């Protein structure tokens, strides 16, 4: 077990209670950015929830990630308001631009792309979320700017 | 009863309910049918399918009967237009996401969804329904079954069975919405997730999603298969199976559990998938005689003539005691009875024994001395329902007796039972234990004496029980007072605190049972080990009550029966001593012979030793394979080479049969009728399911002919008549007949036709009168590690294989899963020797050496190596020690000194 993956402080928050599984997983994901297999095995043993049962929960909620996050996680909202104002076009454009399908990670680990049913910011439709920050009223043009901004940032690093 | 007071009105009829009833349980008990897809009596209700909806007056919506507790005086309708429509809608929704390719589905005709669709959906709609496009998208394909996920109706029965029944937690439902399906998760195969291939999930699947591979080859529809209820032929649990036979091919194609039995829903991989050997092309079809070193097919007549001639020559030259008979723990009670009758009445020798000598001889000896009867005192269901504490020592229950193992796991899971496990290996049940102790192999007396000492010192013993029911307690107390607790723990190499905790948990529980197997018995101190466990049980008053007792788990399907029916050199059937004048007279009259041998005969290992010396000149072996199963194989091989005339009756040309002069083809359990007696003394039926190939005869018929050839003119029309003869002369089987054991069997002692059988022994009185304490000293094993052979070898079983592997290794799926021996060695030892998992190593003892693959693990104690004895290529018994327990004559298969070197 990697010493970095010590989960006990999170488990202690919930008294090692298996009924708090979802909160525990959520806290663990906040800590590591995703849910590493070693962490899950450790949780499984310590709160006595079989790995298969945890899998049922993890695969049910879109929230939980089993892969390390890409540097830039791009989420394209597909809710009703976004849909009618061009979400599909935006998604197609990002997919072709990054050569990536929704749900995929780019091989260099830089980008991940996903869709979400509604983020609740309908007034700003169509929206895109990049690493938790919401960008509104997107068109192909604004997207170009956003993506080249990310590339710029890369160069300056 | 007071709890029967609640009543409800169902379809205008008053029904009494229990307090914790659901509508479904109460209504179906009253004989009214409610359809379900996701419900099963053995499982907790889940309410997933909504097919069981009913109308309850006052409830705004229809309610799912399976999950709704009964309300007193509720008025319920189980079927009307509204209910029909609701069920129809749900079924149609399922049909739309289910492939409608019933014509190629194995479940066609027995599929619950198909049946309900036909019943609830109008034919005009059904014919127009478009189902899901069938895919061959298999989520799981393993050696035994496939999961075709496109056919899954998401009832989750499989998930719940792995969780609640098998307690292996392999499955959960993956994803959400329409795409949900059962999965092991994380991209794992079932095996990687811990699947033990019991196939219980396959059995409960209501549609064709989970299907046994074997059934895919059948040419008959599932409803055309012939079903035969019979007893499993592997371990001593005695699970009831339903063999499904394709009548067009005369082949077994699948196995289901017979739920109304001791195993309930559960079977293990051997029971469900281990039958392929029955149809294996290696089976012997006709009698064979060795001519010029080769086996030649001959007629039965020729084979019998030769056996008669040679045996009679030997008898006339050196007397009947130069012959010996090995009867079989795999054969039926009736066959065992005839075999010992052949030996005793027809030939005239008591040299008859079988492999019980190698497994539980010390149990029989020890428990007879302490209690007066050498069998499991309680019943399996009793252990798992009534024991507050189970102390498991020297039994890897989940692998050697899988169905008892999972019942113990269920009991622990439900919080009913606490476990104490003592085993040199960290076996699966250790994970379920309150206290796990890893004693050094061969130190059991020290460990148990330490527990006894603590219980006596702390005065945790049952004074009343000791006073009223036992004798010689003072002798034990005096002996124990002289021994030091700490040094006992040191000998056993266990933590003192653990021993104290275990002793106090065991002693203070209201009901505590001991379960043990070969880890206790296969020692030169086997009888001492058993006596010590008997001491422990009597000391705490844990005998003769539900949920208590001393419970040896018998290893083979009918090892109990083979012992019961006189397959031992010192007793007639029913443990009646051969040295007792009265018994001799009784059997002489009954069998119609002038003379019976009045001295005890030779035991298995002694037979081989005497054969080695040339004193045993002829041996008749039925269904045994001593060349793999007996200790010190090289010695056995030499002995069999020296035997002048060897007859082997078996299914295959086993390693032992290779030495035979005559091989007689036997029949497997699926081809003949009979009874087996399981570990809890339950006599259960074995029923013929298929016609035999070739000119094989049922083993009882072969023995009948042999009896006739040697002057016993008795003819049996069926095994049932043999059982009637057994009942006349064997008091403990006095009330057993085929008619009475037809459903569910009977547990002996069952002395008369109206006796209900005996689930718990020694209830008010021990079989011998008073229970007897024995003061036992710890003795070292015969062979201890030294500089030359620094490690201890201990042997055992694997879940997938059985005994000498002649049957399971001829099952394709099992062979693929476990093709070779993988011996276990501790991480630290491996590091020292430079060995890693997958390496080939040479293991050597004073008696032989072998080559084997090795698995490095921390689940075994440092200094100990573990091997199974299933594989003839690396036969563990080349190494084992044939030193004997002085009383029980059981060899020390569990401890010998070895050295390990990398190849």
UniProtKB/TrEMBL annotation, chain A:
<protein>
    <submittedName>
        <fullName>NAD(P)H-dependent oxidoreductase subunit E</fullName>
    </submittedName>
</protein>
<keyword id="KW-0001">2Fe-2S</keyword>
<dbReference type="InterPro" id="IPR002023">
    <property type="entry name" value="NuoE-like"/>
</dbReference>
<dbReference type="InterPro" id="IPR028431">
    <property type="entry name" value="NADP_DH_HndA-like"/>
</dbReference>
<keyword id="KW-0408">Iron</keyword>
<dbReference type="GO" id="GO:0016491">
    <property type="term" value="F:oxidoreductase activity"/>
</dbReference>
<dbReference type="InterPro" id="IPR041921">
    <property type="entry name" value="NuoE_N"/>
</dbReference>
<comment type="similarity">
    <text>Belongs to the complex I 24 kDa subunit family.</text>
</comment>
<dbReference type="Pfam" id="PF01257">
    <property type="entry name" value="2Fe-2S_thioredx"/>
</dbReference>
<keyword id="KW-0411">Iron-sulfur</keyword>
<dbReference type="InterPro" id="IPR036249">
    <property type="entry name" value="Thioredoxin-like_sf"/>
</dbReference>
<dbReference type="GO" id="GO:0051537">
    <property type="term" value="F:2 iron, 2 sulfur cluster binding"/>
</dbReference>
<dbReference type="InterPro" id="IPR042128">
    <property type="entry name" value="NuoE_dom"/>
</dbReference>
<dbReference type="GO" id="GO:0046872">
    <property type="term" value="F:metal ion binding"/>
</dbReference>
<keyword id="KW-0479">Metal-binding</keyword>
Automatic annotation (TrEMBL), chain B:
<dbReference type="GO" id="GO:0022904">
    <property type="term" value="P:respiratory electron transport chain"/>
</dbReference>
<comment type="similarity">
    <text>Belongs to the prokaryotic molybdopterin-containing oxidoreductase family.</text>
</comment>
<comment type="similarity">
    <text>In the C-terminal section; belongs to the prokaryotic molybdopterin-containing oxidoreductase family.</text>
</comment>
<dbReference type="GO" id="GO:0015942">
    <property type="term" value="P:formate metabolic process"/>
</dbReference>
<keyword id="KW-0004">4Fe-4S</keyword>
<feature type="domain" description="4Fe-4S Mo/W bis-MGD-type">
    <location>
        <begin position="225"/>
        <end position="282"/>
    </location>
</feature>
<dbReference type="InterPro" id="IPR041924">
    <property type="entry name" value="Formate_Dh-H_N"/>
</dbReference>
<dbReference type="InterPro" id="IPR054351">
    <property type="entry name" value="NADH_UbQ_OxRdtase_ferredoxin"/>
</dbReference>
<dbReference type="InterPro" id="IPR001041">
    <property type="entry name" value="2Fe-2S_ferredoxin-type"/>
</dbReference>
<keyword id="KW-0472">Membrane</keyword>
<dbReference type="InterPro" id="IPR009010">
    <property type="entry name" value="Asp_de-COase-like_dom_sf"/>
</dbReference>
<dbReference type="InterPro" id="IPR019574">
    <property type="entry name" value="NADH_UbQ_OxRdtase_Gsu_4Fe4S-bd"/>
</dbReference>
<dbReference type="InterPro" id="IPR017900">
    <property type="entry name" value="4Fe4S_Fe_S_CS"/>
</dbReference>
<feature type="domain" description="2Fe-2S ferredoxin-type">
    <location>
        <begin position="4"/>
        <end position="82"/>
    </location>
</feature>
<dbReference type="GO" id="GO:0046872">
    <property type="term" value="F:metal ion binding"/>
</dbReference>
<dbReference type="Pfam" id="PF10588">
    <property type="entry name" value="NADH-G_4Fe-4S_3"/>
</dbReference>
<keyword id="KW-0001">2Fe-2S</keyword>
<dbReference type="GO" id="GO:0051537">
    <property type="term" value="F:2 iron, 2 sulfur cluster binding"/>
</dbReference>
<dbReference type="InterPro" id="IPR027467">
    <property type="entry name" value="MopterinOxRdtase_cofactor_BS"/>
</dbReference>
<dbReference type="InterPro" id="IPR036010">
    <property type="entry name" value="2Fe-2S_ferredoxin-like_sf"/>
</dbReference>
<dbReference type="InterPro" id="IPR006657">
    <property type="entry name" value="MoPterin_dinucl-bd_dom"/>
</dbReference>
<dbReference type="InterPro" id="IPR006655">
    <property type="entry name" value="Mopterin_OxRdtase_prok_CS"/>
</dbReference>
